[in-house]
């Protein structure tokens, strides 16, 4: 007796209707939008939480006179508090310009002058988080910086400039007591570029 064989039905290619295809595209776009929104929200939340922890660590360093890390594994620590009263801006400044430092706050570049000392101190931060307020800073604004030893210095904004990242014109050994706040430019860009936005200030004696 010849064994019976099972004949499988022929399956042709699946064809999506126009409506199904549009629904698929809509769902895909919605999913990507939610993903991007979630990432942005996480970055913002992380930045805000970090500032709370950094504020606590900075306050402790002022009291103890010793560097205090905001979390045990950090490769940086708070060195100053920066405030611009006119626009109610405030941020804790970290030591060095490492990727971790810039992820959590403005950073005082290690190769530049200390706040309140001769030369040029350069503080850098991302344009979409901690230095987003630089676009609102104008000539004449006062920048108050409290150092981790408790000393307070006031700078006056003298101008702004847009430069290429490797042609900043910043002289760290310039005469006087200078401060530069630096961030990427333009502020509304979504990709990295070569331009930097600088806010120049000098110490008010």
Write the layout of secondary structure elements.
Layout: H1 18-64, E1 78-84, E2 89-95, H2 99-104, E3 107-108, E4 119-124, E5 142-147, E6 152-164, E7 177-184, E8 195-203
Parallel strand pairs: 2-3, 4-7
Antiparallel strand pairs: 1-2, 1-5, 3-4, 5-6, 6-8, 7-8
Account of the 3D structure:
The chain is an alpha+beta fold. It has a single domain, classed as Beta Barrel (Sortase, Chain: A). Helices cover 26% and strands 28% of the residues. It has two helices and eight strands. It has helices at 18-64, 99-104, and strands at residues 78-84, 89-95, 107-108, 119-124, 142-147, 152-164, 177-184, 195-203. It has an eight-stranded mixed beta barrel with strand order 1-2-3-4-7-8-6-5. The longest helix is centred in the N-terminal third of the chain and has 47 residues, at 18-64. The model is unreliable at 5-9 (pLDDT under 50).
